[in-house]
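Sequence only, no structure available. Ideas?
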Amino acid sequence: MPKKKIKIKINHDTLFSDVTKKQKDDAVETIIEASCPRKSFFVMTTISAIICTLGIMTNNAAIIIGAMLVAPMLSSILAISLGVGMGDFKLIYRSLNVILKAVVLAIGFSFLISLMLDKPAEFNHEMLLRIKVSTETLIIALVAGIAASLSMIRHELRQYLAGTVIAVALIPPLSMSAIALRMFEFQVFYNSLMVFVFNLIGIVLSSLLVFSLTKFYTSQDKVVEELKEEGDLLGKEENV
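Reply:
I predicted one. Tokens follow.
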């Protein structure tokens, strides 16, 4: 009597493989719109930097968390990953330009706010947290980049995006670098900037991996469409 073959069905994890074209297009639209270099983007970046500076100098973690939630910079970093994954140099250049302007604004206004307050006699707890360059910083950024990109792709995970913004902490090291200048602590200024750079690199690398696994290159047409609409929008704002 022949033996019956037992078929075992293995359920493959579909976290990356079942992403639809519509989900990709929606994510592209969300990322590009959220990182659009409008005046509102830079105003929110400035507000975040001011709040964060006050939080750091008063050693208040709650204020710093509030500042991180206001900051829109994460979207522009994800846009870099999107551009690299698709080989879209226009999107890469545009996103790098947005980040550079945001960094200059954040440091500039943080420095001005720090000048208005009394010069700290010593580093408080929150300051010390923002100047430590370590392997842990990069690991956190890598994990946060995965969480952020997945949150953009899958609507059921969008609710966790705010937690990702808090975890990666992009604005605090920029504000701390400005405070370090105010204190004439140039090594601390450098360390704070390196914390930001580590965060940026980690997010770009891990989100690029996610975008590659989900084959985002199939939404290249959506990127072209969104950048064209963005150019038209910015052109209208300039004429107002």
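The chain has a mean pLDDT of 84.
Hope that gets you unstuck.
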